[in-house]
């Protein structure tokens, strides 16, 4: 496979898997709006969408999405070895590797991302609340952190851009 083809396939698959796991671009843009509206009174939703799109176009972000969702699916199907199956399957609080994977996304647009990520992870607004609903029978141990991280990174990107134009 040529490098170009592989790149397209990676992005295409990352976007497809997000959709299949119940996460739309708009859901993530809503999180960005939630994080940024208090700082930018004129904030437009389309700006939030655009910044999410830019984050999703980064290769390291796509790699984190694919890896995290793949692990969630394995856990959901009971395909992991113990003790990992129980740990990931039950979203054990002290596991922490889901957050470490998400940091590779948060990192992309600098350190404001970490503050945003911590905040949104604590508040769990919108889609994050749905992903954390254990009664769904789905496993989103990795995906909730990934989605929060994409929103945090997109917020940082947006904040940096606004700072530059002001
Ligand atoms: Mg998690």
From TrEMBL:
<protein>
    <submittedName>
        <fullName>Phosphatidylglycerophosphatase A</fullName>
        <ecNumber>3.1.3.27</ecNumber>
    </submittedName>
</protein>
<feature type="domain" description="YutG/PgpA">
    <location>
        <begin position="30"/>
        <end position="160"/>
    </location>
</feature>
<keyword id="KW-0378">Hydrolase</keyword>
<dbReference type="InterPro" id="IPR036681">
    <property type="entry name" value="PgpA-like_sf"/>
</dbReference>
<dbReference type="GO" id="GO:0008962">
    <property type="term" value="F:phosphatidylglycerophosphatase activity"/>
</dbReference>
<dbReference type="Pfam" id="PF04608">
    <property type="entry name" value="PgpA"/>
</dbReference>
<dbReference type="InterPro" id="IPR026038">
    <property type="entry name" value="Put_PGPase"/>
</dbReference>
<dbReference type="InterPro" id="IPR007686">
    <property type="entry name" value="YutG/PgpA"/>
</dbReference>
